[in-house]
Amino acid sequence: MCELLGMNCNVPTDIRFSFSGLIERGGRTGPHKDGWGIAFYEGRRCRTFLDASPGCESEIAGLVRSHSVKSLNVVCHIRKATHGRVCLENTHPFVRELWGRSWSFAHNGRLKGVKRRPLTHYRPMGTTDSEHAFCWMLDRIRERYPTPPKRDRSLWRLVADLAKDLDTCGTFNMMLSDARSLYCHCSTDLSWLTRRAPFGEASLIDAEMTVNFAQETTPNDIVTVIATRPLTHHEPWQAMARGSLIVFRDGLEMWSTAA
Amino acid sequence: MCELLGMNCNVPTDIRFSFSGLIERGGRTGPHKDGWGIAFYEGRRCRTFLDASPGCESEIAGLVRSHSVKSLNVVCHIRKATHGRVCLENTHPFVRELWGRSWSFAHNGRLKGVKRRPLTHYRPMGTTDSEHAFCWMLDRIRERYPTPPKRDRSLWRLVADLAKDLDTCGTFNMMLSDARSLYCHCSTDLSWLTRRAPFGEASLIDAEMTVNFAQETTPNDIVTVIATRPLTHHEPWQAMARGSLIVFRDGLEMWSTAA
Question: Choosing a second label site near A136 at 20 to 30 A (CA), which of A125, A255, B216, B233?
Fold first, then answer.
């Protein structure tokens, strides 16, 4: 299996604290040593850092940990290969362009039979069921909306329907971003937390690291972090309901299938 | 304007020496300080490092200079913005998927009126004429060949025709890779060099750096480097003919419009 980390904010925010916790699970505090990747949005495009080597010892992960990149939307993944060999082609997040925007996708779980679903527009480069599922979702979105729908809610509903469909193939914990929103679907394990004023301190579970967010933020900042398992002690992480999808924008839960 | 650097080899090769020369021109020995980017192929996918800050002082460029990434195909670009603001969306190389492969593209020059050409399949994320031209090329390739053509030569000929067409809009020095070959079109400035046994020494023009390739290679290695301007002293760089296109594969000139 794998672990996921996402962030969605109302002001560009540095994810290094959360990333430092997650990446330890990439071979040190967790077994997810078969590569890792992260996508940071800047406008309509995202910048990715990918590596097929274990996160805990990756030189590129070291750069991501030390170099501040501020972003409104981040999708991150550490991999424990269950399907498909360890190589760049099979490293999440996967990225494709639709409507002149980067869409990025990361997944945790197995999806049986998904590779038999025909694809029209987008093709996988690697051999994972995850990338095939991503291409299938984008095909459906593009088919239904050759240009962006007028109402955001129409897109949210479609993504939720597609996620629900894929969930029937097995386990579909996933994060998807279209450069504006972050979509999270929970099949078995996803927890989230919104940090906003008054900010306090937090300590990582996986590393000796504490941060005082009051010193790092302004009173208007709203930052939501979503992860397979909570990353910090003593913060009110809430588990997503199984089978639910939440759309985050501007750091807030904008819509969900539970609503 | 901008500068380009490409590499095509028969065995995965480290580009750090050439990159170290080029990146100096990103604000130190040259004026191309409006961002830089590099795409390294690993199989069908490429890994990119992109930064909108000057190459000569970029922390990410520092990583690329110090961290060995071996690749058969590399496309690299340093930017001096003439069209479109300085931001990630406008940073070359641009990347899109076709036939389950990453295609990457970098361009030097202005293309007047190219943004009026209609697009069907691929859409730009940024505002450069370069990215629009890339989307237009991929649209044409995809339209003609929904799946890869049986004969490589058919594709090479099509790419050459598209490049010739774009060249009529202004200046079209470009590098394109489809994960197998490297296509270089020279409108005004591109020079190239093939290194093979017996290997010797080379010294950069833009930095104090010398390498003895005999120590870094095996006798079977064939490495071609292509750049806007020669990067080293005392090596037999040859200028490409204006209006010509060369297809490199396995480190060799496989085909050209001059042939």
Answer: A255
Burial-class residue B53 by CB neighbours within 10 Å (0-12, 13-18, 19+): middle
Question: Which residues sit opposite A253 in a β-bridge?
Answer: A248
Q: Which CATH superfamily is domain B2-109+172-256 in?
A: Aminohydrolase, N-terminal nucleophile (Ntn) domain (3.60.20.10)
Domain spanning A2-109+175-256 has what CATH number? 3.60.20.10
ipTM for the complex shown: 0.96
Query: Are A80 and A33 spatial neighbours (Cβ–Cβ below 8 Å)?
Result: yes
Report, as an integer, the average pLDDT of A52-58: 91
> For residue A59, how many other CB atoms are within 10 A of its CB?
12
pLDDT band for position B84 (cuts 50, 70, 90): confident
Tokens representing A102? 């980067």
Cα dist from A87 to A51, A94, A158, A191, B71, whole Å: 8, 13, 31, 28, 13
Q: Does A67 touch chain B (CB under 8 A)?
A: yes
Determine the residue among A70, A88, A103 to mutate to test chain B binding: the one whose Cβ has the most chain B Cβ atoms within 10 Å. Answer: A88
Q: Which of A253, A73, A37, A55 is nearest to A176 (CA)?
A: A73
Percent of the residues in chain B that have a pLDDT greater than 90, as a whole number: 94
Q: What is the CA radius of gyration of chain A?
A: 17
What are the domain boundaries of chain B?
Answer: 2-109+172-256
The residue with tokens 């990338």 is A131
pLDDT digits (tens, 9 = 90+) for A147-202: 999 999 999 999 999 999 999 999 999 999 999 999 999 999 999 999 999 999 99
**pTM, rounded to two decimals:** 0.97
CB contact under 8 A, B48 and A48: yes
